[in-house]
Amino acid sequence: MTNSDIIVIGGGITGSALSYELAKKGLKVLLLEKDAIADNATQYSYGGLAYWSGTTELTRQLCQEGINIHRNLSAELDADTEFREISLILTIDAGDDPNLVFQNYGRFAIPPQLLTVEQGCEVEPLLNPKAISGVLKLPHGHINTQKTSKAYQQGFCRLGGEIKIEQVTKLLREKNRIIGVETPQGSYFADKVIVAAGGLSRFLLAEAGINVRLYFTHAQLIKTPPIKDIKLRTLIMPAVQKRLIMESNCTQTEREDLWTNPSSELMEGIIEPGAIQFLDHSFVLGQISQVRTDYRAAIDPVTSEAEIRTEIGRLLPLLHNIPGTWHSCLVAFANNSRPLVGEINNFSGIYLFSGFTSPLVFAPPLARHFASWIGGENDKIIRQLSPVS
């Protein structure tokens, strides 16, 4: 049995960043991660930092704090996160009106440049000009998500933190208080338990009788080995973000019963062709997002990989048949596109740190705000994000 001030569940970038910031405050923290080799949304991320995407005072502040942290994080953690500045190219389908799409981006903190097909292909020569009617160009940050999470964990351990590779199977509850967690290896107790387990967070909380409006998609993509004879200059994503529309549809009140009674049946699904090449020359190509309310739902990898490759081939023909392996992971989201951060009302000892629409840029600053808040400081940002059960 281990006694800690805080137990953090989940070793992706959210849980790793949070554990590090809590340890900086002098707290005794135990980080529990289910996989020795990461198999989560952080592992399969594009690695993009959308610091241009703030639309409110809150999100603009977090975007600015987030990019400032990332620009200095390698030095702070004494490890290379592979941070770089990169251009983001948002593709506009051939049948869409570029000016109408461009107008939808007027609310963001940094407005994009609208480029013609010719200008877009000059910035990114791998684009198929026949597949687009134009592109939006934006400044973007980029990191290696695996190396960043590892760097956070190493910094956490240097501060006295402890990591155990054990899967949390149960939250230990006494009346309306969570007192610890259970794993196949034993029970661990703490004053506070923070769930930062991405798509598994809803399941863990529900098993303890705690229901929050946190959801997940089954994301599917292709990872490749290093390919040095093809060079992708930018990060490619679609300008019309169908995933956000799908998420909004699937969190309507009338569909809540489908989440309460999980099913493997497909509720909704979309495909958004995108690509990024990392500094080691490997690619991530994607992605399909499907809403199936059972986190254990089986997905046909052959069909999914073929669909991804078809869409990538239409947009980026040279990448159509490059060698790669299909992967699937859970991606958490909240019903209002804002993260759920803080203590869950009507319960004590249990906190949530999940549901990030832009986790790579939001998680580091929110981890700092959370650590200050849980240490007793007044933080108005965390008050705005508290989850409701």
Explain what this protein looks like in three dimensions:
Helix content is 30%, strand content 30%. It is an alpha/beta fold. Strands 1, 2, 7, 8, 9, 10, 16 and 17 form an 8-stranded mixed sheet that branches. Helix 2 (57-77) crosses helix 10.
Question: Could you give a quick summary of the protein structure above?
Answer:
Keywords: Oxidoreductase. The chain has 389 residues and is an alpha/beta fold.
SSE layout and pairings?
Elements: E1 2-9, H1 13-24, E2 29-33, E3 48-49, H2 57-77, E4 84-93, H3 98-103, E5 113-115, H4 117-123, E6 132-142, H5 145-158, E7 162-165, E8 170-174, E9 177-183, E10 186-195, H6 201-207, E11 214-223, E12 235-238, H7 242-250, H8 256-260, E13 268-277, E14 283-291, H9 301-315, E15 325-334, E16 340-343, E17 350-354, H10 359-374, H11 380-384
Parallel strand pairs: 1-2, 1-10, 2-7, 4-12, 10-17
Antiparallel strand pairs: 3-6, 4-6, 5-6, 8-9, 9-10, 11-14, 11-15, 13-14, 16-17
Helix pairs in contact: 1-5, 1-10, 2-10
